[in-house]
Amino acid sequence: MSKYIREIMSTVSLKPELFGKFILLDKIAMGGMAEVYRAKAPGADGIGKIIAIKRILPQYSSHAEFIEMFKNEAKIAVNLTQANICQIYEFGEEHNQFYLTMEFIDGKNLRQVLSRCTKIQKSLTIEQCVYIVSQVASGLDYAHRCTDKNSAKPLNIIHRDMSPQNIMISYEGEVKVVDFGIAKAESKIESTRAGTLKGKFGYMSPEQAEGADLDARTDIFSTGIVLWELLTGERLFVANNEVNTIRKIRECQIPSIRKINPNIHEDLEKITNKALARDRSLRYQTAQELSRDLSRFLYKINPEFNPQDLSLFTKTIFKDDIIEDRKKVVEFANINFSQFASAQGGEKTQYVNDATKTTTYTETGAPNNLVLESANESIKSFDIKVDKGELVRKSLDTKQPQKIISQGSYNSIRSAVTQSKNKQSSFMGSFFTIAALALVGVGSFLFLTKPEKFFEIAAKVLNNKPTITNTQASKATQVPPPVETVRVFVNSFPAGAQITVNNLVVGTTPAEINLPLNKQSTLSLRRDGYLVYTKDFIASKNPDEFRATLQKANFGYLDIEVQPSTSDIYINGQKLAEKSPIKRYPVPADKPIRIIASNPYSNTQDQIQVTVRADTIKTIRLFPRKKK
Q: pLDDT tens-digit profile of 337-364?
């Protein structure tokens, strides 16, 4: 097996499995009673659609009462078709395992988003928090009002398990509620198992914690908990055990948001408190009311808010996850249904190699040569003459920095190649047109003066058709050879500096990087608290090293938050291109710094003067409310 194929297999772990009419590509979630897979559903001409499959674990498929309730709830959930609800397509059974097929959402759930924010010390803006919960409330409202399509009777759908884990945020900024109608079935079986709802009790309503009859307002209370936690960054109902957590919910003592986070507007605190009213009659009576109040507040503080703001945020904090997932997607695109067939007894999946007509297996049922065939298929798709093995090896080499080519750059490259081909075709066409006219002139002269010579030449032309030689064809389609590169070891003191080559980020010191042979490259090393080190460097064939000692910079840093976030920010009179929130903005240490936030829409501003010590971070919060 060649080196670049081994690297593909080690980089992307593929264990596809045939499950009924679906191909399970990879597991994306695992719960107490079910597992969720990204899967491919069959389509016309072998083009499969990517979906999600929630497969009930075998030990619960024998629980008759649970399965019956699960079926009934699933049938109801299939009717929910709204932008803020993950759509369920069908309910089925395969090999005594029940499953649901549903919309695949390319993103993360809200709990994962919050965990990542904590890890990298970032936070959602107030506008983003309000937007997320307003979209959740919109989806809830649709479900609560949903009626039977035949009888027009209310279906009385209640989610019963509104929590961050059941709110998905796609990388495109979409907000979707998942597991609609399934919680009721799960609660039936959970009631017979002690200690399995740990972590879920914290999002119950008081009436749910007391075992009372539930209506749609229980979902509103649970959504209010999510909103409270987003705005404060703390858990609302949490204790050392489940009993004490339920006791807190029943008491329903809601701490003031503004005491925890002074940046919260009093109108937003009122909305949150109304959603969290213990008395259901004082709570929002419909999710639509909650959604409208949140949307109205969002427009008030930031009329220019766009879901793309949320999209950019999620793509930024999960950029490494997205890059890794795209590697899988490339491989998944080459997996098709003709490669799979059910084996005898259903214990394994077999794969037939069309070239050799041989069948191979793996322990999990995945074919040993599946990735090999997929890689070959992807290589065949290139229409430009390049060193294919080198191209794949470099693009998937995990030991060297990755250069990501955007779709726009790819289209530009492809367009340039196409234009080049068109110019060649145009030139050849013009050449043959001129040649044809010349032949017509010469032929006419011969026909009139020497007819016997004309027919002799015409016969030769008809018997010997003009062709383009291989050399000519090669020249017409020739592509410049790839640039030769060498490996260069780059290090800094101290280590941990970001490496850029010709303004492209390629890694962090210490690292080995590829540089063009005998050509000048501009290398820069950047590390917080140090001056940027930049030097032109020419790599030779001999093993080269690039080392640099970074000089300490006397800087402090500012974290700046402004409400509304659309306000302009000035530091020492200079307008910043960035908008709030701004993290770790470097400023000279031990010198007075004046920060001004100006709202161009209301012609108001707020300002402050601060001094920041070296290597420290100071948080600044401004509220432009004073007239200029």
A: 666 654 333 433 333 333 333 333 333 3
